[in-house]
Design brief:
By secondary structure, this protein is mostly helical. The chain has a two-stranded antiparallel sheet with strand order 1-2. This is Putative bpti/kunitz family of serine protease inhibitor. Keywords: Signal.
């Protein structure tokens, strides 16, 4: 019985250490590094790529102003702060939307 216990403890410890040191999920779970806030980034770098530009105005989240606004997308090097519509932007970045959805879910 003791040998079985030692075996379980050893493999549990081994799994913990391998998850902690891995690059995947365990690396994120045990990491001290904060994930990047995509909503705080600028929507895109100001370079011009007319072959990739579209007529539709995408939406980005402005953390300082606290809202979602359209911007002129030149078609190059977009960050993740680039949404097709205002609803998607608010669901992804606006904290008041999160709080409202949590309130509705609790009712």
């Amino acid at each position: 019985m003791l040998m079985k216990h030692v075996y379980v403890v050893f493999w549990t410890f081994f799994l913990f250490v391998s998850l902690r040191d891995s690059v995947g999920v365990g690396g994120v779970l045990f990491s001290d590094v904060e994930p990047e806030d995509e909503c705080a980034k600028a929507p895109e770098k100001r370079t011009n790529c007319p072959e990739q530009a579209t007529d539709a105005l995408p939406i980005y989240y402005n953390k300082t102003a606290g809202g979602c606004f359209p911007f002129y997308y030149t078609g190059c090097e977009a960050s993740d702060n680039n949404f097709p519509d205002k609803d998607t932007c608010q669901q992804s970045c606006d904290p008041t939307t999160w709080e409202f959805e949590e309130y509705i879910a609790q009712r």
